[in-house]
Batch of 2 targets.
Target 1
Amino acid sequence: MELTHEQIAQYQRDGYLSLPGVFAGAALDTLRGAMRRIIAADRDWNFYESEGGPVRAYNACHWDEPVFADLVRAPETLTPARQILGGDVHLFQFKMNPKAPFGGSTGWAWHQDYPRWKTSDGMTENRAINVAVFLDDVTEFNGPLFLVPGSHRDGVLDGEEHANTPGLVALELTDTVVARAIDAGGIVSAKGPAGTVLVFDPNIVHASTSNISPFTRHTAYLTYNHVENRLVNPTREQHIASTDYTPLWLETEVA
Ligand code: SIN
Ligand code: MN
């Protein structure tokens, strides 16, 4: 799935691009089947909201589930990532966030992704991209991602460490920084039906609130990184920050 020049320009200007209807019908059913198997499995790579609490993130789903391994190499996800990053990419991170209903998930405070990857993993530059695949419908009710358009263009902003779930901590942005960013760019709510693909820049300011609705909001986040953009002092485990720089190929490119 090739992005047009206009879509790439829009991504560069706004820091995100929403593509509804990328997965539908049988392809979407297959992804949702994989989602259900991950939920049912006893996995070592899950993070929990609290001890005994709901899952906050199912990490490295592509290790356990061939459907998600295929998703990493799919034209709908890999092609836009390679186009935007301009070269070969590897998979840096795969997670599926369930956004537990009835307030079971605490949400995600305002942050940028790249500062955490720089601090914890030594990612040299922001030459990465998040490709989110909505596995449930995302509405105003079940904790959609809030994005601040254009905020990625200001680079790394002032943040502070926050003791959240270990391994998933973000450097939370200060209120002043968030207010300034929103004053400049406004806020959008990334809603869309299951099967939507949302690509966003790791420096875009984003957050989400808890989900008090009865509806889950499973979203898979695939983070691709340019193969030249090495992690110079990785401190986190492979299921969170992969140092396997093997370039990814579409199935059709493999002889
Ligand atoms: C994230 O920012 O990494 C996840 C936010 C969300 O799933 O709402
Ligand atoms: Mn994030």
Target 2
Amino acid sequence: MDDKTMNAQITKLRERLRRWKKIQTEKDNLNTEEEEMPKKFSVWNDYKDEDKVALESLAAGYIDFLSRCKTERESVVEAIKRAEAVGYKNLDDVIKNKIQLQPGDKVYCVCMKKTVALFQIGTEPLENGLKILGAHIDTCRLDLKQNPLYEESGLAYMDTHYYGGIKKYQWVTMPLALHGVIVKKSGRVLNVVIGEEEGDPVFCVTDLLIHLSQEQLKKTADKVIEGDKLDVLVGNYPLKEGSKESVKKAILRLLKENYGVSTEKDFLSAELALVPAGKARELGFDRSMILGYGQDDRVCAYTSLVAMLEAAEVPLKKTACCLLVDKEEIGSYGATGMKSRFFENTLAELLNACGQYSELALRRALKNSFMLSSDVSSAYDALYANAFDKNNVAYLGKGMVFNKFTGARGKSGSSDANAEYVAKLRNILDKNNVHYQFSELGKVDLGGGGTIAYMMAEYGMEVIDSGVGVLNMHAPWEVTSKIDIYETKKGYSAFLSDI
Ligand code: MN
Ligand code: MN
């Protein structure tokens, strides 16, 4: 081999080595990028001491809210109280007094005490669209029937019809509290909360003892406790006379003396629900999580509300809205559900109160809006790994969750957010250092669920499902992670200020 040929060979080898090195570096870079994907780490790793106070105070406020507001009515009362404290006015009063709303003004509108919409007027005309945070405040529970009370073998029971999708066997042998209202013929409303205070009695659905359960335990889990058997035990003490149904009569007497229920017929005009009794709690040795009833969807409702009320001091360009609705768990039907015209009608009133109303302005306001339709997402549960797609599931402790689509069996019934909108949100979230993850409810064809997103999408606005990951969703006690709640609230604030 002559020098010339050898030199040429060396140059070739050097070139090959250079290319190989380049490929290796690119590979390394790729690996680093992979490491930085949100799925690969827990947000707790990125959590700084200065976040601690804000995170813990948000969690404490949330635990208190969960513990006190267990029905949609209670949640609406609390939302109004907090809104009024930062200057919100009732839209009905604004209409009645013919007040013209100005940018920066804050109003709320209530639908039948169960759904509420809050607005903060922006500097831009409403027809440019709103930014909407939506969540639901109804939760799974056992509703009392209209003729609930009966006696059987010396025990008084109340008959229930469960509300929402529940595993019925989870609701037996635990303390239950009674929440709701009884409306008298005069129109007077009696508010009922029994079973939450230390000295209060509680209620309970009984189950068959294990010793006699051979037959029962052969049944499939959906049959082991039938919906019809979810009757709640409420009394055993008879009136002295020993007459027929004397335990039931004794209960009615107590209801009259202590709770203002003058006749059994008062139950006809009542809305009473049995919910798990007791307060929400911190969960785990490290207190990193929260165990509480009704976190679906009060975790999103609370964080949306807090973000909305915090924005009260900030001048906004686009009008902001926080919408807390009823009846999501049973299909969003009825006047207080998302399928009603409440939101559209309220927006029309708002346009009018701002001196901007026309049918076209209303249509444009709806079409040009952006929404985060918030609901809980099923988080990965290592004990039931087979139900999830590991790469497309939410994890506890990995931040705010987005579901580009929901639906089931071939995305049927889903509202699929546009890639352009998702990109816009990624930009806002990254700019504001919000940790987030994208997920699906579970494995393809294993199940599915819906939210209020598709109803708002019908107006032609940009909508995506977002929210917080939850373990044992729809169980009497659900689990969330404090850091996810914190990141989600950060996400809502970023959305309200930046979109
Ligand atoms: Mn929900
Ligand atoms: Mn639900």
